[in-house]
Amino acid sequence: MRFSKFYAPTTKEAPKDATLPSHKFLIRAGFVNQYGSGLYNFLPMGKMVFDNIKNIVKEEMDRAGANEIQMGVVTPAELWKQSGRYSAFGKELLRLHDRKNNDFVLGPTHEEVAVDIVRGKVTSYKQLPLHLYQITTKFRDEGRPRYGLLRCREFTMKDGYSFHDSEECMKKEFDNMDATYRRIFTRLGLDFRAVDADSGAIGGSGSKEFMVLTDNGEDDIVVCKSCEYAANIEAATRAKKSTEVEAPQADMAKFHTPNCGTIADVAEFFKVDEFYTVKAVIKKAIYEDSEEVVLFFVRGNDNLQETKAQNACGALELVDANEDEVKNAGLVAGSCGPFGLPEDINFFIDSELRDEKNLICGANEHEYHNIGMSVLNFNDSRYKDLVEVSAGDKCSCCGGELGVTKGIEVGHIFQLGQKYAKAMDATFLDQNGKAKPFYMGCYGVGVSRLVAVMIEASHDEKGCIWNRQTTPFDLDIIISNIKNEDELKFGESIYQSLKEGGYNVLLDDRKDRFGPKIKDFELIGFPYALIVGKGLKDGQVELVERKTLEKTSVHVDEIESKIKELLA
Ligand code: ATP
Ligand code: MG
Which of 329, 356, 384 is the last residue in one of the domains? Predict the structure, then answer.
């Protein structure tokens, strides 16, 4: 391809709302252009990267035995009514109707359509298992489209749906997809972890997320430095926290503790380690049609993990309780403890505090704390995992040190069981001739999101740094001065020869000066550039590696073999 005929509108300006490198560089390097909130067009170079990623995904899905299909984006609402998701899905589902007032949705995901494809057609266990997948457009009316291609409204997903005659068979395909996703993300050259989305334990659960570890990301990921353990912070567990500091020995007693509103004040007052104090976090839990003040108790030097807390009480949402709400619930802010609470107060205690002794906690009386307390005799259902794992905690699998990093979700695999097949009445005849709902799995990869993820994973302050698997072009031949006939001739000849050799090269034959051309090379981020410039009269050209920006002089007689060796 010749740059003079290529559409890659590079600019110095990044959009005002772009905070992440991938968002800035995708626009500045002319990979995509935004035409509405959460809506992007892929320009030639963006399309090339997108196709490279898509091809890797397709190759690995085909290799895993899945069948590629293509479903429509517009889906009759009737199918969504059958599964019950038409009303349950919420505002992300874009609902529309046609001229006859029939309801439709723009597909945010395609479980219903997949079930409808096999329903009544796949009728016998002999036709199972079956895996159908597609790489197509999805629409989700996201509340906050942002970060460029990372969270769009229209995006491309690889979504696969598998059908099975037993749970065992479904689990086998889940493992097959686990391995397939690992191959995909390894081929893309990404640093990723498979994270258990339900409980934080590796294996044995119904859903796994694939997270790419990056400096910027929407998720916090807990990663063990010694073993494979990784989990979303919302589900991460740790080995029980301990301390070398000795426990304060004291009989049960109540103390007047003036001006001790925080854990730090309390620890200072009693001259004890915060480890031996109990922290109370007061929240207001919002349910479908009610709300209540709920108390959560964790160790003084731990923090409450809000999603865990929300799961503990089953609320739709947790918000801060205001002063009046706290007072009306009969609570004394700053002095709350698990003992002697008003009878009707709902509360939960972190499991790590169970049976712990010698603790200091609020006495539920203004400016009073209890010492020498033991957390005994509470109902089992009061104990929940509530703590936020933090860097330096110990791994529950191997005892190694845990770290916390940012991550971006690029894939998600699910064991759906019979949920959709039952709801939509999709059955097959088993070996005994009995009708049985299918077992299903579903598996998603964020293909367009991956275009941005590749940049988040590999860039510097000047621009993108593509690897050979995803780059639009492997080599950028830059003719330094297009008016110099020798330079032009040499550039053309090496371009022709490499192109004929099947190499993926771009010839920068634009009438621009050298400065903007090399800047574009650095911004766009092809793996190599070959600069044909003044040195040519002495038989020398320069090869630049984008990753290191290192330049090497190469003799013109050796350049072709050198490049062929690099790009082999
Ligand atoms: P998220 O938690 O990021 O919203 P999700 O759980 O809704 O993701 P899935 O429904 O599992 O995502 O979709 C499969 C994949 O599609 C995700 O792993 C992600 O890579 C991608 N994806 C989801 N929503 C978007 C979006 N709004 N823009 C771009 N890609 C997306
Ligand atoms: Mg989502």
Answer: 384
